[in-house]
Write a structure and sequence with these properties.
- By secondary structure, the chain is mainly β.
- The protein has a domain of 91 residues: SOR catalytic domain (Immunoglobulin-like).
- Strands 2, 4, 5, 7, 8 and 9 form a six-stranded mixed β-sheet that branches.
- A hairpin with an 8-residue loop joins β7 and β8.
Length: 142
């Protein structure tokens, strides 16, 4: 049994995880059987059910943090149980920034507001400026 999907997504996005259940003797795909998806937040010990699908379907969870997934086949009258290797999906934060002024003159102080999701209260966010034209140099951050 295999489980595949994106390694990194942005907070709020869904990830598509595809599972494939195969017959060990013939290596052909097995269709129409129930496959369960289990998830646990990276760094935690507990594992939770995250979904059920048939072998022809994909899972599309929306993890809020870096999560480790595995697929499991409980077995049937014809086939034994199977479990996939773990797949880790890293979740990077969504960062937005808005400049208060639409134009900026040299030596003008500017105000930038924005947000980070999920909430990272108390953590510092750095803002880098870039030149508007090649060869103009970088402004010094304060």
């Amino acid at each position: 049994m295999s489980l595949t999907g994106a390694a990194t997504i942005t907070y709020g996005d869904q990830v598509t995880l595809g599972s494939r259940l195969t017959d060990e003797q013939t290596t052909t795909g097995i269709e129409g059987e129930q496959v369960n998806l289990f998830a646990r937040r990276a760094g935690s010990g507990g594992e939770l059910g995250a979904g059920t699908a048939t072998t022809a379907a994909a899972f599309t969870p929306v993890p809020a943090a870096t999560t480790i997934y595995r697929a499991s086949f409980p077995g049937s009258d014809t086939y034994g149980t199977a479990s996939s290797p773990q797949v880790m999906v890293s979740v990077r934060p969504t960062v937005t920034a808005r400049l208060q002024a639409s134009t900026v003159t040299k030596s003008q102080t500017i105000v930038v507001t924005g947000s980070v999701a999920p909430n990272h209260h108390g953590q510092r966010v750095y803002c880098n400026a870039r030149p508007t034209a090649p060869g103009k140099g970088w402004p010094r951050p304060r």
